[in-house]
Amino acid sequence: MDRSQISFRKGHVLLFAVAFALLQAVLAPRTFAQETLQQNVIAGVSCSNSNNGTAHVLCLEELNNLNGNTPLVGGVSWQAPNSPAPGNTGAFNAPIEPAGTVDQMTSISMSSGSFTGMPGCANTSDGTGTVICAIEGANNGLYGIAIHPQPLGNLTEAQTTSPLVPLLTPGQVLTNFNGGAPTGSPCTPKYPCNRVSAIGGTPSCAATEGNMVICGVLVLLQNTLGTTVNDLVGIAFDPRVAASSTNPAILGLANGTNFYSNPSCASSNDTTGVVNNGKMFATCAIVFVENYFGATATLFGASFDPRSGYNRGALTVSGSTNYGQDPSCAAPRDNKGAVICAIGLGSGNGFGTGTSSTMFGVAFDPIGRTTSTISLGAPPAGDGAWESFACASPVDANDKNSVACAAVTSTNKILAINFDPRTGQDPVTKAAPVFAPVTFNDPNGTTATFVSAPSCVPENIINNQITCVIVDSFGDSVGFFAKIQ
């Protein structure tokens, strides 16, 4: 299948990295040292934290193959700035390295084919320091991989990579759908419904309470007439464990077919133990347009767990005009199950491209089945329009309700804002959210520009800091940190 046959081809999510400072009363720009992590990056990067008490940032990237063959999958870990001193250890005696240390995994080849895509990653909760990612393979299938580039503790899997295992492959027929299969019936062995034609977008993943991660991805499905529709599909998997009837666990969400963005997923759970029996699940924001000609877009907040089959149905928020770009979501640390997202309003071409006039914040609460919104406004005069957003949940003993987002403009400016749509405030200042200008000094100099949007993570043992990675126009992924004070 060539690109012309896929009307909902993903525009690789553009991830711009940011450094920012949020002061208690006044937001002010800060500059931090940046560090090159990897070179020859094609599109973008997805990162997660090690989640094992060592403050490593682990990222997966698609790399150009200098031999001219198909692209490579490359992984890297970075010891976050302001980490505890070397000599301290995390789970299983995993070492903390000198701040800024970079460890790269051995790159592996993608399967043969025409193109690949940008990954989605999330950490595991087993203390191993492993991050699991999903990435589109060159044959238009979805593959899973577990990476652990950082040094060894008492474990044997450190500094190793799992095989690149197939999750969804062209020709595979999906049978498990919530709410009815999207392509109808009857289905026959000769003309099966819901045959995977290709991956239709960039995956996004969320952690669970165990070893698996849960990812959401658009999938192009072929119906009995040979045409394709796109559906949001949930996948729970662990590539370190042998494939079985439950690994991967796949659930077609059947929320509709006219999706117009990639999903952004974060973890939710009901601490009362009622929803999904208290197990963590993914809540993903994704844009849906009922009719392409003049219709106003809707932002879906879909919650699901393929392991249990949980999928009660999406919460929805309609925009006053069409949503632009892909959403970016994170879960605040208040343990209430909500997920907070940022997205643009006005213009935008979907799939991470185009510009928007207004930044819009949305909170989806799948436990209480409520939504909250806040308009965060336009960029300051002279800074152009919004191009992308990246959000993460800061670690702050005095603030467990907020999500901090970095917003990139069409004039290559970066601004940061901290907010909670449920209260309409910046939970740190207890006042209306305010944008702060951000300074980023690229190691490649002033001629370097942003070519991807940020992937930022909080380190659970570093207070008031978000650690991020960006891809620049030289094809380098660059790491930096942002203090939240």
Written overview of the protein:
The chain has 485 residues and is mostly beta strands. It has a single domain, classed as Neuraminidase (6 Propeller). The protein has no helices and 31 strands. It has strands at 35-38, 41-49, 56-63, 72-79, 102-104, 108-109, 120-123, 131-136, 142-148, 160-161, 165-168, 195-199, 204-207, 213-222, 228-237, 249-252, 264-268, 281-288, 298-304, 315-318, 323-330, 339-345, 358-365, 370-377, 386-392, 403-409, 414-419, 436-438, 455-458, 465-471, 477-483. The strands form 7 sheets. Strands 2, 3, 4, 5 and 6 form a 5-stranded antiparallel β-sheet that branches. Strands 7, 8, 9, 10 and 11 form a 5-stranded antiparallel β-sheet that branches. Strands 12, 13, 14, 15 and 16 form a 5-stranded antiparallel β-sheet that branches.
Task: Spell out the key features of this protein.
485 residues; mainly beta; Neuraminidase; five-stranded antiparallel β-sheet; globular
Short description:
This protein has 485 residues and is mostly beta strands.
* Tally of strands: 31
Looking at the overall shape, the CATH architecture is 6 Propeller
Number of domains: 1
Indicate the overall shape.
globular
Class based on secondary structure composition and strand pairing? mainly beta
Oligomerization state: single chain
* Gap between N and C termini: 50 Å
| Helical content (DSSP H or I, runs of 4+) | under 10%
Low-confidence stretches: 1-32
CATH topology: Neuraminidase
Number of helices: 0
CATH class: Mainly Beta
Radius of gyration: 21 Å
Biggest beta-sheet profile: 5 strands, antiparallel
Strand content: 35-45%
Mean pLDDT over all positions: 83
